[in-house]
Automatic annotation (TrEMBL):
SUPFAM superfamilies documented for this protein: HAD-like
Keyword Hydrolase (UniProt): yes
Protein name as annotated: HAD family hydrolase
Alphabetical keyword list: Hydrolase
GO MF annotation: an example: hydrolase activity
InterPro entries cross-referenced by the UniProt entry: HAD-like_sf, HAD_sf, TPP-like
Gene3D superfamilies to which the protein is assigned, alphabetical: HAD superfamily/HAD-like
Amino acid sequence: MPVLVASDLDRTLIYSASALALTMPDARAPRLLCVEVHESRPLSFMTETAAGLLTELGDTAVFAPTTTRTRKQYLRINLPGPAPKYAICANGGHILVDGVSDQDWHARVTARLADECAPLAEVEEHLAASADPLWLRKQRNAEELFAYLVVERELLPEEWVKELAAWAENRGWTVSVQGRKLYAVPKPLTKSAAVREVARRTGAELTLAAGDSLLDADLLLAADRGWRPGHGELADTEFTAPGLTALPERGVLAGERILREFLKASG
């Protein structure tokens, strides 16, 4: 039976320049492969070794990138190895099959959101009214499913984030901060639901997963085995789950280690 590998991308398998955490002497830094260019600039990287491991993984398991990115943001990533048949975007709002969104799945998700939580417009209005221009750089709507802010992280008040999280909780939403982005996401919009659907379609009996943020917690809880890097929200909160391994590596070398673990577990 096939093994399904459902992995978060940003700060799990791929890394921006600011997230690489290259703490070793320069001469010993790993060679990097650029896997994403945006507006003519290199944006995301993995080590060349990780690229080889991912190529190998694509031949031995069903690899399904599982990201909070929108479809447009995901499709500009150029991962090494076989093109994944399945990819999960918008935190589970879209399942791409050979690069095209499955409209039946998307309709099921949007119906559930309408039934179970406050509308996106209410959340967007609250964010616009309460965010301070001092630290707010952009407010965005992701595929009419959730909202996010681009912020100056060092100026973002922790107290404001806590108050927002409590406000969102009462409306069936959750808040997560990752790098310079603050996400407000409906609770029923989950990576795990989409991964279960992909597992059903592929007949996978073993699901492996990895992630670094609070938006990956449900994914790691649903997987048979999971890994989290030594950085990110989950590491900061010492998140644990059955079958979860907390890795010590931080930055781009954590991505390499996660791929080694995927290969070992799926072989």
